[in-house]
């Protein structure tokens, strides 16, 4: 309360950054170059996503552990209920605590059979996100963030059902929601109005996806519960073979979106970095974030 960022960057927004665990040594190098470049901007926290399957889980854990060991960043580890017993999930929660992680992004996760198939909880697992949150709180004193869907979750009958699920997550102990990405800010503010009207008062932090690759983004938006407005497609039209102009457009589009959010009172922004630093760094710079001097030299 009382804190308001400004468009001229003299009162910067608070940002958080999302990464995914790398699959190959080359991807690992890209991720760590990005983390080191973004670290001096002192984001409020950095989160690492979690996948189904043992090897991707181990990669999440390894990435989070390395963030604790090698950086001054505050990590948030994502965790889902999918395809695991309570005992297995509880072990992951304990191992996060032991690694010095005190913030979990608690999620149900996608159906084990893939998006579009019905969701069935593991018979001995946590059946839903509110149950998972209750389990986390039994194990330790974690800060808990959850998801929110301004354009409704693809499986959901309506926004109202979604908001009811959000309420259950808050009642279970969630302190913050991070939205699925969206491109039309009016969609976010209409959703926020409904959330507030339902009596939910936790921060609902907009998740922003700087579009690195328009075609790829357009292909997965519907599955994620998001849409691509016609004007956005129009902006990238004709640039399929022109990566350099696409990057400039991507920066302009994302800057326009975040400035509008700031003008309309948003104080916190979560960036889906896709493990790349350049666009996010530039947008953070526009928002007034500057590197700490010593860290900037180390990162250079
Ligand atoms: P919830 O918010 O718990 O539920 C989603 C929807 O399911 C509800 O809105 C409702 O429509 C329906 N539903 C759930 N419970 C009930 C109920 N009791 N009654 C009726 N309907 C119900 N996926 C990963 O695999 N790993 C990640 O790291 C990851 N990180 C994410 C981070 C963010 C910020 C976001 C927005 C999504 C992330 N996802 C991740 C995707 C997410 O796992 C999928 O969207 C998944 O399908 C739903 O998980 P959730 O926690 O959002 O579900």
Automatic annotation (TrEMBL):
Known pathway = One-carbon metabolism; tetrahydrofolate interconversion; Amino-acid biosynthesis; L-methionine biosynthesis via de novo pathway
List keywords of the entry alphabetically.
Amino-acid biosynthesis, FAD, Flavoprotein, Methionine biosynthesis, NAD, Oxidoreductase
The keyword Transferase belongs to this UniProt entry's keyword annotation: no
Q: Does the keyword Amino-acid biosynthesis apply?
A: yes
The cofactor named in the record is: FAD
SUPFAM superfamilies according to UniProt: FAD-linked oxidoreductase
Instruction: Fetch the CDD domains from UniProt.
Output: MTHFR (cd00537)
EC number(s) of the enzyme?
1.5.1.54
Instruction: Name the Gene3D superfamilies for this protein.
Output: 3.20.20.220
Catalysis: reaction(s)? (6S)-5-methyl-5,6,7,8-tetrahydrofolate + NAD(+) = (6R)-5,10-methylene-5,6,7,8-tetrahydrofolate + NADH + H(+)
Example GO molecular function:
methylenetetrahydrofolate reductase [NAD(P)H] activity
Q: Which PANTHER family match?
A: METHYLENETETRAHYDROFOLATE REDUCTASE, METHYLENETETRAHYDROFOLATE REDUCTASE (NADPH)
The family line of this record is: Belongs to the methylenetetrahydrofolate reductase family.
NCBIfam families attached here? fadh2
By what name is this protein known? Methylenetetrahydrofolate reductase
């Amino acid at each position: 309360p009382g804190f308001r960022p400004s468009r001229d960057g003299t009162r910067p927004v608070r940002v958080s950054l999302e990464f995914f665990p790398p699959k190959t040594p080359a991807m690992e190098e890209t991720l760590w170059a990005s983390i080191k470049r973004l670290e001096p901007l002192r984001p409020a926290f950095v989160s690492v996503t979690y996948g189904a399957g043992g090897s991707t889980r181990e990669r999440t854990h390894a990435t989070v552990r390395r963030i604790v060991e090698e950086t001054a960043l505050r990590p948030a580890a994502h965790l889902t209920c999918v395809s695991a017993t309570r005992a297995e999930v509880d072990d992951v929660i304990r191992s996060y605590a032991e690694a010095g992680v005190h913030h979990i992004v608690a999620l149900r996760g996608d159906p084990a059979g893939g998006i579009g198939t019905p969701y069935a909880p593991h018979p001995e697992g946590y059946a839903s996100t509110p149950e998972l949150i209750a389990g986390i709180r039994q194990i330790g004193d974690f800060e808990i963030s959850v998801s929110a869907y301004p354009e409704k979750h693809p499986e959901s009958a309506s926004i109202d059902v979604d908001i009811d699920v959000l309420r259950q997550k808050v009642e279970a102990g969630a302190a913050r929601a991070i939205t699925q990405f969206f491109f039309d800010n009016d969609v976010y503010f209409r959703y926020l109005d409904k959330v507030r009207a339902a009596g939910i008062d936790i921060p609902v932090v907009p998740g922003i996806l700087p579009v690195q690759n328009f075609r790829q983004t357009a292909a997965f938006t519907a599955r994620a519960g998001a849409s691509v407005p016609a004007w956005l497609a129009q902006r990238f039209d004709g640039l399929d073979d022109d990566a350099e102009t696409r990057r400039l457009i991507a920066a302009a589009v994302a800057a326009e979106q975040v400035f509008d959010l700031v003008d309309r009172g948003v104080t916190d922004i979560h960036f889906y970095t896709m493990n790349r630093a350049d666009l996010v760094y530039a947008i953070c710079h526009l928002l007034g974030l500057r590197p700490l001097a010593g860290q900037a030299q180390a990162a250079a």
